[in-house]
Specification:
The protein is built from 4 helices and 7 strands. With 152 residues, the protein is an alpha/beta fold. Pfam families: RVT_3.
Length: 152
Amino acid sequence: MGFCSNGGRFDAFDYGIVPLGEWCQLDGAWKESKCRAGLDWYNFDPDSSSTLVGACNLRRGLSPLQTELEALVWDMQSMLVNNKRRMNFQTDCADLVKMVSKPRDWPTFEILLEEVEKCKRKFQAFSLTHIPRTKNTKADKLARHYKKCPLC
């Protein structure tokens, strides 16, 4: 299930329909036994065939879902800094798509979801789609690597 900034919804990858244009895959790596979490994004522009990549780590939050949400916020902020205003964000976390489409159903994450809404307003076009984990391998590998780097 995807979410469009105009309020419409679409099932993108579940049925093989891929939104056209620039996309950015994101991931957060979280492990309860580790004190750090890894965040990353992988951006691709099909018009220019250019890629941008970002990865970092931070202190582990309370849950894997919080880490995924923090990854989305950082990803959105990074795309805005790079003047990318039309973006299809892609995640392998179905709950993240649900959170963004119905933020009132997730009061525990209110502060981070408010930041998502604030960032969304700055995009000319915004979508968030769920993709299979097997299609998010570049972002997944980066997040797992940077989770291990204490000073990255």
